[in-house]
Amino acid sequence: MYAPISAQKQEARMAALQAEVASLEKELGEHEDADAIVKKHIKLLHRYNEAKDATQILIGKLATLKETTVRQIHDDLDLRDGD
User: Fold this and answer.
1) What is the four-CA torsion angle of 5, 8, 9, 12, rounded to 10 degrees?
2) Which residues lie in coiled coils (predicted)?
3) Does residue 56 surpass a pLDDT of 60?
4) Which DSSP letter does residue 36 get?
């Protein structure tokens, strides 16, 4: 069972949500298209991942040439796990 919400509380909640939406739109930019921003970020993420994959392939080849492990190359180059 749920407790009924008064019309006053509903209006207050609605006003708070509208204010939050307005604040977020202002932060984003009034004339910015959220879908376009998301698409741009996805495209940039794909480019980043491709570059990271290529780098890992090169690190693997370097490890083979040096007859060591990829982990050792990462340590030698001071690469963190998050990179």
Assistant:
1) 150
2) 7-34
3) yes
4) H
